What does this fold into?
Amino acid sequence: MKKILVAGGAGYVGSHTVKELLKQGYEVIVFDNLSTGKKEFVLGGELIVGDLMDKRLLLEVFKDNDIAAVFHFASLIQVGESYLHPQKYYNQNLITSLHLLDAMLETNVKYFIFSSSAAVYGIPQQIPIPESHPLAPFNPYGQTKFFVEKILEEYDRAYGLKFISLRYFNAAGADPEGKLGERHEPETHLIPNLLLHLIGKKKNLDIFGTDFPTPDGTAIRDYIHVTDLAAAHVLALKALLDTPRSEFINLGTNKGYSVLEVVKKAEEVTGKKVVFQKKPRRLGDVPILLASKEKAEQLLGWKLNFSEIETIIETAWNWHRKIA
It folds into this structure.
């Protein structure tokens, strides 16, 4: 059997996808520098500790293995940090992607699944956001995802490299079996910070922005369970291998919750009271991000199994209590 290379497979979404690939019988190579990923999150397959900046090592991995397709999860993800350190983001998200694609071209690997972002859309002109929405990213993080998507289009045209770019909305939750979960350092996402507060590891919860043009003044986001995300990636692989055709596909739920609604749901699930502090908006935050999911359903046959907000919070709560 040919192997599947997963760049960034020791990270949050990457590790859940590796778990799903292994479950479905694929042979997996994880390539990760472990700067944010965790070795213990790689539940099987082969782990190669390496950096995508190391073109020589990367090419060796491709030449030494019969690789059928590549997943690319390895990137920096903090919008605020991308404003402060754009050079870091362009190097780590853009240059490394080029190195990966160059190794694919040199070894004639034709299938690529890219971890993109709703950040490519910028400020939404319509809700829910369809894949045909204009692309107008307005932070460096979103720009890096946008540029990689443009590169992929050119590589398809010029070299026949086929890709599916999966545009995430808000990944959340943890493996229902309790083997994996979310652990970033520092943690910037709402749900894990909320649960870390309830466990007692954070004194207060900061809510950034209470003056958005939304019903309760807090930002509305589309939360999708990480296990549903992982399933979509494996479906994308199967679609690409079966019918090689490049696509851009949203991964979201078509449903949004405000920050205060998520806080209330967390209180209901955990039976604990949240103490929060109001903070100014973060640079780059938009009022509402909500995905249209029709294309993923139609093209991939994708179904949401775990993305009810209560399930997301419950699985994440179980995970954080386990590792506390």
Q: What stands out?
A: The CA atoms of residues 265 and 310 lie 7 Å apart. The two ends are 39 Å apart (CA to CA).
